[in-house]
Design goal:
The chain is an alpha/beta fold and 342 residues long. 27% of the residues lie in helices and 27% in strands. The model has no long low-confidence stretch (mean pLDDT 96).
């Protein structure tokens, strides 16, 4: 079968590999659509050390079951499915304490090693415990978005405690996760302010229904947000960019007794913040990693058709042009979510 193989930094090639066969607890899936995540691009660039070369990337995908292992009873040929990224070991102390899979020190991650291949291929394998059926009214391209949508949806409704019509929400970053976070909040009727430095993404946020779009370079950011919130600030801040400036600004724009949810990827960096504000204004700050136990909830949200998620997809590439898809993702120029269609 054809597969995109990441051999090393800036060495992504389309190659031929043997079509996998499912073990007793596995399912073979024909991939219909796979998303290009920023993490995939960063591993290709060498700025992220999560992957172990060589491997088939792609941890965001949707497909159709073509064969099931002898021990699988919960799925059948023809089922339309998506799969979570991590599988916990279920036996370590963290797992036995009931912690989420990302907290397991011995978890397996799919799309980051040769042994656990991702979905940028014609076929991929998945253990049955990873799989979830796609609702009938959700297509393959939309279903391939479930991983980033679930990261945003969990940040709002899991870590963040939810968004109500009376909330004043600020979302930092109008990349795919930021836009999905905005749409998750808009579905509940909340007012949402987007903070984004790139003009293309600011326009995308406007087109998708943001109430206010702020350019952080167009004046004092905190003053801009306070102007649009009656001087009170945001009751819920969703940081989806991972940038130093946005992280530092969260405490400036949050309301008294407000919530800050840190969703954007950020590791190995230290930034100065005025922590006294969080102490004396009783700010809740919580990190939100992944989307533990939120795939079923997110698929239900998607099936309710409260908002349209597909316009966040700006580009589609056949598998043969996967390098072009990564090049576009690296540039960040006038793009949001990119799909590879095997």
């Amino acid at each position: 079968m054809k597969a995109a193989i990441l051999h090393g930094v800036y060495d992504l090639r389309l190659g031929q590999v043997q079509e996998p066969r499912p073990a007793g607890n596995e399912v073979l899936i024909r991939v219909k659509a796979a998303g290009v995540c920023g993490t995939d691009v960063h591993m290709w660039e060498g700025s992220n050390k999560e992957g172990t070369f060589p491997f088939i990337p792609g941890h965001e995908w949707a497909g159709q079951v073509v064969e099931v292992g002898s021990d699988v009873r919960s799925f059948s040929q023809g089922d339309r499915v998506v799969a979570e990224v991590p599988i916990a070991c279920h036996v370590c102390d963290n797992c036995k304490d009931g912690m989420e899979p990302n907290m397991c020190p011995d978890k397996e991650l799919y799309g980051f090693s040769w042994a656990n291949a991702g979905g940028m291929a014609e076929y991929t394998l998945a253990r049955a415990e990873r799989l979830f059926r796609i609702p009938e009214n959700v297509g393959y391209e939309e279903a391939a978005l479930v991983e980033p949508v679930s990261v945003a949806y969990h940040g709002v409704w899991g870590s963040g405690g939810g968004a109500a019509p009376h909330d004043r929400v600020v979302v930092f970053g109008a990349g795919p996760v930021g836009l999905f976070a905005m749409l998750s909040c808009k579905a509940s009727g909340a007012m949402v302010i987007i903070v984004e430095p790139l003009a293309f993404r600011r326009q995308m946020a406007r087109d998708l229904g943001a109430d206010v779009v702020v350019d952080p370079a167009a004046g004092d950011l905190v003053e801009q947000v306070l102007d649009h919130t009656g001087g009170r600030g945001a009751t819920l801040v969703l940081e989806c960019s991972g940038s130093n400036g946005a992280l530092a600004a969260t405490l400036g724009v949050v309301a008294k007794q407000g919530r800050i949810v840190l969703i954007g990827q950020s590791a190995g960096r230290t930034i100065p913040i005025e922590i006294g504000r969080a102490i004396f204004e009783r700010t809740t700050i919580i990190g939100s990693s992944g989307s533990p136990h939120f795939f079923p909830k997110t698929l239900t949200f998607m099936s309710r058709r409260l908002v349209d998620l597909l316009p966040v997809v700006t580009h589609r590439f056949p598998l043969a042009e996967v390098v072009d898809a990564f090049e576009l993702g690296k540039s960040g120029a006038e793009c949001a979510k990119i799909l590879v269609l095997p």
